[in-house]
Write a structure and sequence with these properties.
Elements: H1 22-33, H2 42-46, H3 48-77, H4 83-114
Helix pairs in contact: 1-3, 3-4
Length: about 120
């Protein structure tokens, strides 16, 4: 029986590379994490590696927006919200930054696998 290996950080919604239907689960997940408009583009539906590249760049753009939001939050919000709300917004940006860091790793791993990289189990 074959052993399929998914590295740490691999998305749980995607089957490991070479497992039955793994590419279908990867495509579904990539569309799920991407803007809904991506589903309308024929090239993204037909070329999974192109879809993965788009998803990587989209997540990286979200990371950049998150970093900007975090750096500007206190200055931009202090005149429109009380201190507790501003701090809650900062904590939200920090949580989103951590989520996006994990998502960027996951989408990068899926892209690598779709390009042919295979992972080996480590002892």
């Amino acid at each position: 029986m074959p052993t399929y290996v998914a590295p740490p950080g691999w998305p749980r919604e995607v089957r490991p590379p070479d497992a039955p239907d793994w590419e279908r689960t990867a495509i579904n997940w990539l569309f799920d994490i991407s803007p809904p408009e991506y589903r309308a583009h024929v090239v993204l539906r037909r070329h999974v590696v192109v879809l993965a590249r788009f998803a990587v760049l989209q997540v990286e753009a979200q990371q950049a927006a998150c970093r900007r939001g975090l750096s500007e939050a206190r200055a931009e919000l202090r005149d429109v919200a009380d201190l507790d709300t501003v701090e809650a917004a900062v904590q939200t940006w920090q949580a989103e930054e951590a989520r996006l860091l994990a998502l960027r790793r996951a989408v990068g791993l899926v892209e690598e696998a779709l390009r042919g990289r295979r992972f080996v189990a480590r002892l």
